[in-house]
Amino acid sequence: MSLNKNMRVMIVDDYNTMLRILRNLLRQLDFNNVEEATDGEEALAILKRNPADLIISDWNMTPMTGLDLLRHVRADAQLRRTPFIMVTAESKTENVIAAKQAGVSNYIVKPFNAETLRAKIGSVFGGQ
Questions:
Q1: Cα separation of 111 and 74, whole Å?
Q2: pLDDT of residue 128
Q3: What is the C-alpha separation between 114 and 47, in angstroms, rounded?
Q4: pLDDT mean values, one per 10 residues, the chain (128 residues)
């Protein structure tokens, strides 16, 4: 079974260059239904109005971090089951544990390429 390339993907990062990189990588993978937000609060407001099928969020953002966004998503009955991939520059064990405890679906350590992103998305959706 192949992934639904039309699914809505929300990318969240407070660094415009990273949003552009993520959008380009997703485009390489034929995901064109991509919405972006520059912080967790903006993402949450958009998601409450129009839930996404997948959230890919940076960890280090202000004022709301990716971990805070993840906790809000998991606490929201409408968004709770949305797959959530965390992007981080650090693979510190305590960060990984915190993200897992908060209910992250998977995480990607920067830098990464389209193939890594494809594999992570595939694993989140049951290796489809």
A1: 26
A2: 47
A3: 25
A4: 85 96 96 96 96 96 94 97 93 88 95 95 82
Residue 59 neighbours by CB under 8 Å, 6+ apart: 65, 66, 67, 86, 87, 88, 89, 90, 95, 99
Single out the residue of 68, 48, 46 nearest to residue 59, CA to CA.
68
- pLDDT for position 93: 87
Q: Tokens at residue 81, please? A: 């089951």
Domain residue extents for the chain: 9-123
Q: Is the pTM of this model over 0.90?
A: yes
What would the 3-class secondary structure string for the chain be? CCCCCCCCEEEECCCHHHHHHHHHHHHHCCCCCEEEECCHHHHHHHHHHCCCCEEEEECCCCCCCHHHHHHHHHHCCCCCCCCEEEEECCCCHHHHHHHHHHCCCEEEECCCCHHHHHHHHHHHCCCC
Q: Which amino acid is at 19?
A: L
Class of domain 9-123: alpha beta
